[in-house]
Amino acid sequence: MSPFVFPRPTALAQAWLAALLRPGDRVIDATLGNGHDALFLAQCVGVEGKVIGFDIQVEALESSSQLLESRGIPQHCYEWHQCSHACMSEYVNQPVKAVMFNLGYLPGADHAVITEAHETLTALHAASQIVEVGGMITIVCYPGHPGGDREKSAVCEWASQQGDEWHVVHFEKHATMRPAPMLVALQRKERGR
Ligand SMILES: C[S@@+](CC[C@H](N)C(=O)[O-])C[C@H]1O[C@@H](n2cnc3c(N)ncnc32)[C@H](O)[C@@H]1O
């Protein structure tokens, strides 16, 4: 049997960011969750870099800290904010190389606590103001849970309106039994490309 080669959207987001990020970069995890993406980002940017993380749930901040500590990431390499990513611009005003969004709910916690389209759009706008030229925004959407479909549509519409300054890519499996997670990624264009 042939191997199944299409990646999960979360893995694809990480693969693209791994190709982009360099030691010393500043990056944002807009939805910390259990810290898997934050750990990945911290490993990409190294001890000279910084990961700034947001989540509304204290459990997410705690499990993210535990994960990074357990992997030997020094504390000065990350800072967490227990608030909505919609408040991103209050905490970050310097350019960043990348912002990761992994929407939806915290696995293992209350599935009613989900990212909300209107806050996600506010955060995406804030992210688009601080990502440097060549930098990237990745958004994994989960249309399979209540509200997730509306959020995915809002994200796709927002991405389609970003005009000439960004390369925009969608990765989505079609004809699936249930609505499948999908990835939207934007890379800020270099001048003239
Ligand atoms: C799918 S999980 C993120 C997974 C995470 N990136 C990881 O690697 O483990 C989604 C997270 O978004 C968080 N969240 C929900 N609304 C949010 C908001 N307005 N701002 C920031 N985080 C939010 C949830 O609490 C949950 O932890």
What number of structural domains do the residues give? 1
What's the rounded overall pLDDT mean? 96
**SSE order in H/E notation?**
HEHEHEHEHEHEE
Which residues sit in consecutive blocks of at least 5 with pLDDT less than 50? Answer: none
Arrangement of strands in the largest sheet: 3-2-1-4-5-7-6
Number of helices: 6
Rg, nearest Å: 16 Å
SSE topology:
Layout: H1 9-20, E1 26-29, H2 36-45, E2 50-55, H3 58-70, E3 78-82, H4 88-91, E4 96-102, H5 117-130, E5 131-141, H6 148-160, E6 166-171, E7 182-188
Parallel strand pairs: 1-2, 1-4, 2-3, 4-5
Antiparallel strand pairs: 5-7, 6-7
Helix pairs in contact: 5-6
Which features does this protein show?
193 residues, Rossmann fold, 7 strands, binds S-adenosylmethionine, globular, alpha/beta, single chain
Write structural notes for this entry.
The chain has 6 helices and 7 strands, in the order H-E-H-E-H-E-H-E-H-E-H-E-E. Strands 3-2-1-4-5-7-6 form a 7-stranded mixed β-sheet, with helices on both faces. The longest helix has 14 residues, at 117-130. The mean pLDDT is 96. It has a single domain, classed as Rossmann fold (3-Layer(aba) Sandwich). Helix 5 (117-130) runs parallel beside helix 6 (148-160). The protein has 193 residues and is α/β, with parallel strands linked by helices. It has helices at 9-20, 36-45, 58-70, 88-91, 117-130, 148-160, and strands at 26-29, 50-55, 78-82, 96-102, 131-141, 166-171, 182-188. S-adenosylmethionine is lined by residues 31-37, 54-57, 60, 84-86, 102, 104-106, 113-115, 119.
